[in-house]
Amino acid sequence: MPFDTKLTRDLGIRIPVVQGGMMWLGLPSLAAAVSNAGGLGILTGLTQPTPEHLKEAIRETRKLTDKPFAVNLTFLPSINPPPYMEYTKVIISEGIKVVETAGSAAAAPCIAEFKKAGIYVIHKCTSIRHAKAAINKMKVDMVSIDGMECAGHPGEDDIPGLVLLARAAQELGDIPYIASGGIANGQQLAAALALGAQGVNCGTRFECTVESPMHQNIKDAMVRASEQETALIFRTMHNTARVYKNKVAEEVVAMERRPGGCEFKDIQHLVSGARGRKVFENGDVDAGIWTCGMCVGLIKDIPTCKELLETMEREAEEVIASLSRLVKPKAKL
Ligand SMILES: Cc1cc2nc3c(=O)[nH]c(=O)nc-3n(C[C@H](O)[C@H](O)[C@H](O)COP(=O)(O)O)c2cc1C
């Protein structure tokens, strides 16, 4: 049965599941597979080396799906920031209807351009105060509430999704939100809907699908991994990132924790994006840092996106139906 939430209605999708932006993996093949399966696939803007390459990727995705898909633009502290406004212009001129944004205040001018162009903006936040600022100052259409379980950047507050979503229900009023972080199955989708979310955003779960453009060895490692196998790096630099706990991540954490700590330049050679990319391409789990969330412990298979979304849809429906059986009408005496 099709879901009917603000996310499905506003975006014209069947299943309220978004595949979040994923550096190196958010390519046309994955985004199109998710959208064709009834969710919202997202191309990761900065995975394309230039705005011109992003234009090509958008056009390629359109050849693979006639369903809605989005583009992610991530604003992170950077020594040499990418030409964000150029990427923004391409997204607008290519007629993209939905954008996922994440990160720092540098997003504001680009979000203003997206809004001017009538684009639907979903902004990812890791705290209620950031969500409120995005709504009030940047006028985004929806927020994605990312608990500390998430892959990538969980923020510095360490509030788990169960609390953060309940706080969102208390604080965000009519502003729609989706649940992000730690979600890998349909029971969790139903739980997120119960907490007032309009759907869910998943990264780690889509990392481990047939269409995910990553080496089979890494997918197999994810199936073997438990929920204990992630690490938080860059903690001491207040730019925390949750990654797979491999040898490189352990070395980084050890350097950050050593007496006197370390500076970014001391670990730069370990954490470079180029090394992380090699993990996905060559299948060596320890080649560099790679992003992975705690819900990796829930992942026991490598389905196609279609199989995954069908399963999540069915599981969520079953949970929603079964919950109503827990409440009995009062017996008439
Ligand atoms: C491999 C990988 C790369 C990611 N890269 C980005 C990124 O570039 N920009 C972004 O906003 N989020 C990024 N994320 C975060 C996801 O979009 C999503 O918010 C997060 O994975 C949700 O948590 P989950 O992994 O527990 O589902 C990445 C996640 C993964 C797994």
List keywords for this structure.
binds flavin mononucleotide, two-stranded antiparallel ribbon, alpha/beta, 14 helices, 333 residues, 8-stranded parallel beta sheet
Describe the structure.
The chain has about 325 residues and is α/β, with parallel strands linked by helices. The chain has helices at about 5-10, 30-35, 50-65, 85-95, 105-115, 130-135, 160-170, 185-195, 205, 215-225, 245-255, 265-270, 275-280, 305-325, and strands at about 15-20, 40-45, 70-75, 100-105, 120-125, 140-145, 175-180, 200, 230-235, 240-245. The strands form two sheets. An eight-stranded parallel sheet has the order 1-8-7-6-5-4-3-2. α6 links the parallel β5 (about 120-125) and β6 (about 140-145). The longest helix is centred in the last third of the chain and has 20 residues, at about 305-325. Bound molecules: flavin mononucleotide. Flavin mononucleotide binds next to β3, β8 and α9.
Write the layout of secondary structure elements.
Elements: H1 6-11, E1 17-19, H2 28-36, E2 41-44, H3 51-64, E3 69-75, H4 84-93, E4 98-103, H5 107-116, E5 120-125, H6 128-136, E6 142-146, H7 161-171, E7 177-180, H8 186-194, E8 200-202, H9 204-207, H10 216-224, E9 230-233, E10 241-244, H11 247-257, H12 264-271, H13 273-282, H14 305-324
Parallel strand pairs: 1-8, 2-3, 3-4, 4-5, 5-6, 6-7, 7-8
Antiparallel strand pairs: 9-10
Helix pairs in contact: 2-3, 3-4, 4-5, 8-14, 11-12
This protein binds flavin mononucleotide (FMN).
